Amino acid sequence: MKALVIGCGSIGRRHISNLISSDRIDRVIVFTRNRNCLKDIDGRGKVETAASLETVEADFAVIANDTDKHIETALWLAGMGIDIFIEKPLSHNTDNIGLLEEQAKNKGISISLGYNLRFLGIMERIKKLLSTHALGKLYFAKIEVGQYLPDWREGTDYRNSYSVSADRGGGVALDLSHELDYMRYFFGNPIIWKVIRAKAGDLEMSAEDVFEGIYSYNGGFTCNVHMDCLQKNAKRYIRIEGEKGAILCDFIRKELRLSIDNAETVVNDEGMFDLNRTYIDELDHFMDVVEKRSDPAVTLQDGIEVLKLIKDN
Questions:
Q1: pLDDT digit string (tens) for 67-76?
Q2: Hey, how many other C-beta atoms are within 10 angstroms of the C-beta on 98?
Q3: Of 72, 92, 103, which Cα lies nearest the Cα of 6?
Q4: DSSP structural state of residue 171
Q5: Is 246 helix (H, G, I), strand (E, B) or coil?
Q6: How far, in Å, CA of 249 to CA of 129, rounded?
Q7: Tally of CB atoms within 10 A around 131
Q8: Whole-number pLDDT of residue 167
Q9: Burial 270-298 (b: 16+ CB within 10 A, else e)
Q10: pLDDT of 34-56, one tens digit each?
Q11: Residue 287: which region, alpha, beta or left (left: phi > 0; alpha: psi -120 to 50)?
Q12: Which helix (H) or strand (E) holds 226?
């Protein structure tokens, strides 16, 4: 297969490297204005750069440029009839998303979103626990993710990244929207919600550095989602409380604790928390989608729903 990658920041480079390593990929075409993009990447004779997209032919494309360019790029590719994998989030607003939906339908192409946490083994374990009602009636959940922005991308100045710019699609609500996606994966769509986006810290950024969302479901269940890029000690966890007990999953410590009727089960299998593997698996899954014309695990509609949850309903 031949893959086109548009954009070559940290996530673009990761996707390029993973595609090069795949036995299913014969050629990786990279479109970027970053001339140093492929430095230190072993292309294995598979990589070429494109000066223009006009004549590029590919089996599918990976969009990994700045968030504010996602929809514009996707519309162009959709017009060419190319299947598209869009790195999360879908966009920085909802402009022209309806047009992209229409274009994709008319051209019969597949579009998937890069919410790679869906491919983490422990997520499937939690999903099964919830689907089998291991906790009984659910009462509430707390999702938290926080990490100091200058530590996100080693060797780069955070002030030069899109993450600091509201206009370019930065801010924790979009950057860390994985948490909203997996909230929907576990619990479905909420019925009402309220969000607060704030600039609380002293980092040099125009976008928000703190996000708080309260999401309410039928039956009284609520989920609180906290995101920030200020905490010096990184946190990423979900806690779910129900009538029979609780689930606490710490993604950084790589540990899940299931407490039911005073009995505790601990899962700390490294393989179930292998974050690097998720980036490989999500692209491998999308290659299956392209070849078999099957439905993607993370759809365009999933990306749209996440954008809705970032704003008050």
A1: 999 999 999 9
A2: 10
A3: 72
A4: S
A5: strand
A6: 12
A7: 9
A8: 80
A9: eebbbeeebbbbbbebbbebbeeeeebbb
A10: 777 888 898 899 999 998 888 89
A11: alpha
A12: strand 222-228
Cα 270 versus chain centre, distance? 21
| Tens-digit pLDDT profile for residues 269-289 | 999 999 999 999 999 999 999
Say what the pTM is: 0.94
Residue type, 91: S
Give the containing element (helix H, strand E) for 214. Answer: strand 210-216
Would you state the pLDDT for residue 157?
85
Helix 178-187 and helix 121-131, axial crossing angle in degrees, nearest 10:
30
Please compute the mean of the pLDDT values over residues 190-211 and round it to a whole number. 95
3-state class percentages of the chain: helix first, strand second, coil last, to nearest 5 = 35, 25, 40
Looking at the DSSP assignment, which residues form a beta bridge with residue 111? 84
- What b-and-e string marks burial along 13-46, b requiring 16 or more CB atoms within 10 Å of the CB? bbbbbbbbebeebebbbbbbeeeebbeeeeeeeb
